[in-house]
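Structure in, sequence out. Go:
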């Protein structure tokens, strides 16, 4: 191949499409995009129920996440909770990391509990 074409790779247009087939129809993708656009802080459980109510088909949460990632370019961001017995400096570091993420850029996949009163209390004394 190198001697013939001067390249070690074939023409990309001649490759067969590889990877997973899309599981959503165009209608389902449009519905999902509308829901996420109107409510970017929606949990994936809620998104699953709304899509089921609109389209009449139940889709697995993993498939929804996969389609959000592949078609809409959304990625999964997790905020890690902090042990309440950690040092106050670690709490402040944690808050500083999560406070900069704009809520319109997040799609939540589960609920988590933070000790907000403790965080506010710590920030007041800095």
């Amino acid at each position: 191949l190198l001697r013939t074409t001067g390249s070690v790779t074939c023409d990309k247009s001649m490759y067969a499409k590889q990877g997973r087939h899309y599981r959503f129809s165009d209608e389902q993708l449009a519905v999902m995009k509308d829901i996420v656009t109107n409510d970017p802080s929606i949990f994936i459980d809620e998104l699953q129920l709304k899509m089921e109510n609109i389209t009449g088909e139940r889709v697995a949460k993993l498939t929804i996440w996969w389609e959000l990632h592949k078609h809409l370019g959304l990625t999964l961001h997790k905020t890690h909770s902090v042990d309440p017995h950690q040092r106050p400096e670690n709490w402040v570091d944690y808050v500083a990391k999560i406070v900069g993420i704009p809520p319109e850029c997040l799609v939540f996949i589960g609920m988590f509990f933070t000790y907000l009163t403790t965080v506010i209390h710590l920030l007041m004394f800095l």
